[in-house]
Amino acid sequence: MRIDEQLHSMLEVAAAGVPDHLSDVEETIRRGERRRRRRRMSVGLWAAAATALALFAGAGLVNLGEATPDGPIIGLGRDSVLPPAVSEGIVAVSTADGTMAAELVLSSEEAPPTLGLTAVVINQGEIPLNVGGAHRTFHLERWDGDEWVHVHTLPTTASYTVAEGGRSGPFRVGYAGNTRLEPGWYAIRKQVVGRTTTEQLNLRARFRVVGDADLDARFAGPAEPVLVADASAMGGPAEPGLWPGSWLVDIVTERGDLTGVWRRFSQEGEPPDVDLRKFGLVFISFASGGCSKAFHELHIDGNRMEVRLVAISREGGYFGPGEQVPQDPASPQFACLPLGGIHQTIVIAIDRTVIPNDGFILEVVTSQSGDPRRFALSGEPMEVPPDISSGPYGDVVGDGIGFHAEPHDGMRGDQVEIVATNAADDTARSQLTTVLEHWNGQRWRPVHGQQHVDQGSLHAAVQRISQTVPAGETAIMYVVDTSHLEPGWYAVRASILSEGRDRTLRATFVVHP
Amino acid sequence: MTDTRESFVAFWQREHDRLYRALALALGDRALAAEAVDEAMARAWQRWDRVRRYQNPAAWVFRVGRNWSVSVRRWRSRRPSVDLEDLDRAVEDRITDVDLYRAVRALPESQRTVVILRFLLDWPVQQVAEALELKVPTVRTRTHRALAALRKAEEVMR
Q: Which residues on neighbouring strands pair with residue A100, listed in sequence order?
């Protein structure tokens, strides 16, 4: 008998000898339903713009789904950062006639050296809205550190009713009299009222003035330029080095990290009171150059998290992923001003149950480019914290690839070798992503902050010895100098390409005092 | 919905037991295999509208179950499985070709899994490649090496 036939016969008998596993398809379906509901809570709603809540419009967003109308994030804008009854981004209330929801989108309309602001009200709810008539004024406000202070009333001559799903305007907002805006945060506020209810919504979109900006008041109303400022003085980088083309991302899963990250992304006021046992916050900041973006949707697949952002049209609509944003200022949809120094931060709250446990790749896709920006981030806290007494912990190995530290524990000053054993059939090759991580008691954190995959930078303590490991061989890929590392658990996380697959591996070691 | 549910139930009834036994032999751990196949099947139902349209939904379930097992093993600190001996005892009680079974058990897991999918489930190379996220030539190479090792082991035992 041929070996394959022999194998087939033997394996069939062997399989029959495996003790039965009594299971029930109905239980499987119930289990799947529970998973599906959980996922819907966190991911399935992201695409539904009307149910997303924004913490900041134009400066940042925190999104939640409709399944948690009384969740922790909805109140935070009102309660901690903003006065009661005023919100930013999409504001929604439930009425007897249905959900009333709207968003005020502010965009730039003229090329430098002047900057005009155009406001559009988008009806994201289920009932028509009056945005003109008695409610036709816009208000210019300034944030004084504690609350929004009224600066000017900006009347318009327009009167609109905006149907469900429709949008107004655009309004060009303005005020009477010339003025100079001191550096700081400003907002345009607009009040709208439901046509069939007495409920009111206060919509707000903010912008930031970094340098002094001379404002030239002309007229308030459609088709007239009104609020004009020196474009070069508008906005400002989130932190030194964040210029057009540069990005900053991070993830927060612990309360202790939140304030620091909140500040690092130039957010003012207190950070949101988010229940970080339930949500992780992903921060994405970029120099928008006047091309405002909005959160569109999020997908998680294995260790890849894809966030899609869309450009906001001047008319208030969105350009979907892959759609070309008009670059011609004459285009009525033109929204993308080539301004320097303006940044935008988007903060997304994500159900922790769907955040990858391990390090993961965050890909940010925008309307303007099909090529995602890629970043490596640490995931959630591991289920079991490492116990120094239990010896090596948490090495992540791939199929056919061994990856470990030698020695697993040593004294400060030791040289730790990160060794890869390749039992696969192809040469294993390390990719650009190699991160030295430290265990902070709950999760792995990059020792020197985030790592940009595209840059492929190595921590100063890590030296690359070999980039490849031939099939069937063992090689030292990295050496870590622990002389300047604080005592504790560390890991080298690397991306290894083998047999056409990119695997994320982690070798852990402990440094004793 | 009814059609979706019926097609999943039919799939579950056809594949659940086969995949569980294949995973048990590949992993050498029947308890882990039982958890893995249930988890993978629940995930399949979660997105059945998409998975059912795949050419080989069973390959998808096997892959998810196997990846889940690898992950679980990692979190359980790779403690030696107490189930392995039980499984071997249960299997060896039934088969006549114990030497060949032990030779299969001695193969590296990457080769053993290929052998089980190819010769127990009779999956074509393409389907095995899909289930294990490998290239077709890699599956062929592993099959070739596994068979060579089994022939060699058999010669030694004669």
A: A93
**ipTM of this complex:** 0.87
DSSP-assigned states of every residue in A96-114:
TTEEEEEEEEEEE-S-TTE
A315 SS3 class: coil
* B38-to-A12, A388, B23, B41, B81 alpha-carbon distances in Å: 22, 34, 11, 5, 19
Using a CB–CB cutoff of 8 Å, tell me whether B90 touches chain A: yes
CA of B147: how far to CAs of A405, B103, B114, in Å?
A: 33, 10, 11
Residue B95 to residue A17, Cβ atoms within 8 A: yes
pLDDT score for A225: 23
* pTM, to two decimals: 0.35
Rounded to whole angstroms, how far apart are CA atoms A124 and A192?
A: 12
* Structure token pair of residue A213: 């900006």
Sign for the pseudo-dihedral over CA of B27, B31, B37, B40: negative
Query: How many percent of chain B have pLDDT more than 70?
Result: 87
In the predicted model, what is the mean pLDDT of chain A? 61
Smallest CA–CA distance, residue A482 to chain B, in Å, is: 25
Residues 39-68 of B with CB under 8 A from A: 41-46, 48
Within 13 Å and on the Cβ side, how many CA atoms surround A223? 2
Q: Which residue has the tokens 């959980």?
A: A38
Q: Which helix (H) or strand (E) holds A185?
A: strand A184-194
Cβ–Cβ gap A21/B30 under 8 Å = yes
Unique residue bearing structure tokens 């033109």: A334
